[in-house]
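Bug: token stream looks shifted between consecutive jobs. Job 1:
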Amino acid sequence: MGMNMIVYQIVNEFKKLEDITAIVLAGSGATGRKDNYSDIDIDIITLKEIPANERKSIIKKFSDIMEIDNNFWGTSDEFIMRNSSIQVDIAYFDFKWLKEKLVSLLEKNEATIGYSTCFWHNVINAMIIYDKDGEFESFQKKYTIEYPLQLKKNIISMNYPILKKNLSSYYNQIEKAIKRNDIVNLNNRVSAFLDSYFDIIFAINELPHPGEKRLINIAKKTCEKLPEKIDDDIERLLKSLSTCNEEIVDNINNIMLNLDTLLQGENLI
């Protein structure tokens, strides 16, 4: 069974529920970045919470292997299609909450530490499959806008200092982790460093953040302005983590040097 037929059948069942206002295809299926390892990501936009037992009764029509009401990163259901290896991930979003999220981001220009604009990216790139009253399409059009200049500045001003400038910066935390030979904390802090680093990269280019997967590849394809040797520098950093020595600090310094050059050239620091 092809992806389109799977999505159609699932949507056809869920749209019967009164408190579902829209159903959209999300993730790589919506952006055209799908590969052999991609799941089918479906976002269901709700007016009220849909009880888990109602969701399970629908999913049982398609699957014998399922996880209902996972709440690790928000409410979701995951399952494997019957007689198939295809995994379907359904995430549920309250429409009011989603609207408030984009008001905070795009009208109040509120940045976060890493992934500031991911929800915006998800909304404007979602492929609408079902839209009961046309409200999601209107919502999508409302926020298909130019990147707010103040938001760009706020993302950089929030994420840049924590890379290396401040006493509490990731750089300083990484140095301490190396001195302690604390490889778990080291990996955690480098990951957080890269979260803020890429938040800055996409802000510089005035592009909504595409999420956590294939970031180097996406950045090289979509961003006109990138630090020199971004792929080489990051690869070198990640390969050096097993050493747990000052080579890691040297690699971060190279990354920061090239990022600073880009930011200075754009008059952003």
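Job 2, same session, no restart:
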Amino acid sequence: MRIPNLGFNTKTPYKVDFALVPAVIVLIEFAIFITQFSQGVNNSLGNLVLMRIIHTLGMVLIAILVWKGFQKFNKSELNFQTLAITGVLFSLAGDLTHGILASIFGIELVSFYRRLGIILIQGSLWFPAFVIIGGYRKEIFQQFKEYENRLVIATRFRGRTSNEFRELQGEIQEGIRKEFFATCIDLKNELDKNMHAGGNLADQFSLIKPQLSGQKLRTFSRLLESSTSSNDAKTLLFRYRHSIILFFQQFRIIYTSAVQKAPLRKNSYSLMLIALVTPTLINFYSITEFLISYPVLLLLIFGFSSLIIKTQKSDSPNAIRNGSILIFVTGFLPMIIKFLWLLISYDPQSVFSIILTALALPLAFFVSVELLQVLRPSALTLIRNDDLRANRSLENKVRNVIREEFARNLSHEWAVFVHGKILTRLAATSLKLEVAVKAGDSEMFNETMQSVLSFLDSPDADFQTELCDLETEIDSRLSPWRGLIEVSVHIDETIKAIRNLRVREVGQVIEELISNSIRHGKASKIDLRITSSGDREIEIESVDDATVAPPRINKNFGLGTVIFNLASDGRWSITREGSSTRFRLVMEVER
């Protein structure tokens, strides 16, 4: 969903939601408490605290009543001007309530003119801003979730296609292959030794038969299969995603993209600082000091705002960093102006404002501006098509997850190969030798032994055999299931002849989803579609008549999840639609 730019166009309608207003009321009440406490209203601290609590509850109640009124009259969208007027009236009601409570609790208030200035600032700027942000908070969160998902997908893709990962694939493959070969060589040596141990065929067979059970290979296959049940890394990425930690770790990258693609305007910096500093100046400055120093401060603020924009747009490789430093420095302008004024006219009543402007204001301004730059819906919308870059921590976590998934999947393939191809061949050899012994056929016996010894010289010859086209691969994966489930298949003509390494992964996906439909969903019929989705992607979609619905939240990530993640970089889903289960997966496959 595209969200309009939250600027200061007074005529543009915005969604209205008071969800954030109570939080803002609490923050403002706390700020007022600090101000009153610093001004010496501490001779009755208990009354001050109690008054502020009652006033906070009263303001929250007024906010709720105003919101209910908007809802009753179907005012779900208002322009900035209307919100500003509403905010001023809301703040005025709060000030009147404040005055009544102050008279009851004996709390001294600042002059009406000072309070009026604060009412105008809070009502015309802060109130509309937080009402508008509240109205779009769901869209903001949704867009950031989409950003998270795209970021993880992009990071997985870069990790899976990187030279480093290809080298890693080779290392894992070589490690399994080396151990497999060592086991086969040991078996070959034992068979060769027993074959030449002498004696008749029956004696030789009695020595050879236990070896042909392939106990070591069987143990090796079980170890490979057990490694696919590891649960340490498989949930790591899922715990890491959709968390506030990701936002903070990605903040600088998001901020850089936002500044480059959708920078704040000069007026945004100026208005933010003016809105932050003006209430403090109204509370603590004398009329003379305010009238003289405030215009000077405004000129400096506008000047530094222009300088910030110019710095961010410069060709310097450190432009973004220098801009951030300048934003922080700009927050010290009120303190500098105050120090200069104290050199001219010392006023002990306004000294406390130095503490506020020196400690709180620069940090508040810096954080507010940087968050505004990133969290503006328009900024998040504009980074949708960016070349997403993950922080080092996320890259490492994704790399570890991909490595774990690849290792598990490859281990499973080898386990199936050893169990299905090798042990089956050894079992068949044992039966042939037994027939030869019973027939007393030494020639058949020796030929069978030479055949198995030759086979053990290159036992991996049939592992990951020659590549076939997409249509043949899918047909071979469906063949074992025909008769168990009714399958209808549609493959786009444009992709039937694709032939590359990714085609095998398509076959694995098909095999796994069919298996899941039968074993977990108890389906008897499935409609399968493999279609082109752009120049470099295909979409696999299946709809079955499963009687058992998939779990809403899958807490157990098995080998099927690993296969789907490796193939699609996480771009897959399974949903229940009426009495059917729909599976959808998108993956990149080069033509």
